[in-house]
Amino acid sequence: MKLTAVEAITNGVAGHNSNSLHVCYIGGKTADDRTPAQKVSMEKVLKEWLAKYPKARIIGHRDFPGVKKACPQFIAEKEYGYLYTS
Known about the structure:
This protein has helices spanning 36-52, 76-79. By secondary structure, the protein is mainly α.
């Protein structure tokens, strides 16, 4: 997995790139097909970011206002809600 410095503005969600962080993975266009290793990696990244930005909100690309995307194929806020209390 290639990591970009969190300070860098990346091309993740149009209109939200200057005030959000983005994590992506290979797959997931039509089904939640994350591998166990992808799930572990994503959880690690999100935990690190929440430690640095405790007021952050974890949402999927599809959950940003005005975005017409179906990815990810799971509800990120529900999937990772437990990280807010751990």
